[in-house]
Amino acid sequence: MKLDAIDLRILAAVQADGRITKLALAEKAGLSPTPCWMRLRKLEKAGVISGYHARVAVRRIAPVASVLMEVTLANHRQADFDRFERAVAATPEITACWSVGGGVDYILKIVACDIDAYQRLVDSLLGRELGIDRYFTYIVTKTVKEETELPLDMLLPQAQ
After folding, report:
1. Helix, strand, coil share of the chain (percent; to 5)
2. CA distance readout (Å), 40 to 23, 36, 111
3. CA-to-CA distance for 6 and 16, rounded, in angstroms?
4. Strand-pair category, 106-112 with 94-99
5. What count of Cα atoms within 13 Å lies in the side-chain half-sphere of residue 150?
6. Burial letters 28-58, b for 16+ CB under 10 A, else e
7. CA gyration radius for the chain?
8. What per-residue confidence (pLDDT) applies to 160?
9. pLDDT 10s digit of each residue in the chain, 160 long?
């Protein structure tokens, strides 16, 4: 889908504030409310906007351990990847999973109430025989930056 500068302004505005009013969005986009709302709906229907979410500061309500985990599978058949990815999708503590090139197959982001809970999760994954050959754990000691907004103007310069 080809986006223009108005579409990018709409996307930037809803990224910054998913609860923005129709009128405020139209002002930021430089359109009247009805055409702006129609463009927003078009972006939603095309799947460019995949949802609206609240960012929860979980550490304000409970202690949490954030862990990054590298995983290498023993075998590399499509069925092995599919089995592992289904298990990841069904595990709520795994909040992100990326299939990567290089020396490992996946990088996971895991949130648990503490390190013991993380280890129980790993033990459970290993016990399910998902084909995990090796894994490496990285405990997050401090979050320096964790953005949810994408720099659309830098990623899509052709629309300016």
Report:
1. 40, 20, 40
2. 13, 6, 33
3. 15
4. antiparallel
5. 11
6. bbebeeeebbebbeebeeeeebeeeeeeeee
7. 20
8. 47
9. 889 999 999 999 999 999 999 999 999 999 999 999 999 999 999 999 999 988 888 889 999 999 999 999 999 999 999 999 999 999 999 999 999 999 999 999 999 999 999 999 999 999 999 999 999 999 999 999 988 888 887 877 665 4
Instruction: Copy the structure tokens of residue 17.
Output: 């504030």
Residues 6+ apart with CB under 8 A from 90: none
> Smallest Cα–Cα separation from 133: which of 108, 104, 102?
104
pLDDT > 70: percent of the chain: 98
Tokens 């390190």: give the residue: 115
Chain position carrying tokens 């009247």:
32
Burial class (CB in 10 A: 0-12, 13-18, 19+), 71: buried
As given in the structure block, the two tokens for residue 113 are: 């109430």
Q: Which residues contact 112 (CB under 8 A, 6 or more apart)?
A: 64, 65, 67, 93, 118, 121
